[in-house]
Amino acid sequence: METIVNEAVDELNNTFSIQNTSKPTIDEFNKEAQSCMKRIKDTTDLITKVQSETDNINQLMQSLKSKDDELQAMFNKIDQLELLVTKVKNTYNAVAENLDIVEKAVNASTPFRLGNRYKSDMPIQPYFPPPNQVDIYDTNELFTSTHL
């Protein structure tokens, strides 16, 4: 009888041992822990990638900002050149108008002589009105000279 009791104790001991009872739970726990570790690693990799891309984007933004500043300076120069071209055009038109006035005055001052009896040896001094005021654009502001 003692043998039967010892065999029953050994059988119950093997069947209900902590190792045998907890093994499926420990295996499941290890499996879930491995899954969590993989997700953590994947998340870490994604965070690293996002940080790298963010750094690249920030560098690109700085480069774009620098180019924008250069372009704004260039646009300002272009605007000044457009103003200069407009001023030169207006000056040219004013000078051309003055030339037209002088040409008309010269053509109008040519005397029409009827004969030799009114001829004098003294030349006739025609009157030419002074030309209109023409403002010339000062380009020193636009074209600064570094060579003095």
From TrEMBL:
Name of the protein: Biogenesis of lysosome-related organelles complex 1 subunit 4
Keywords: Coiled coil
Coiled-coil annotated spans: 50-84
Organism of origin: Mucor plumbeus
Keyword Coiled coil on entry: yes
High-level lineage: Eukaryota, Fungi, Fungi incertae sedis, Mucoromycota, Mucoromycotina
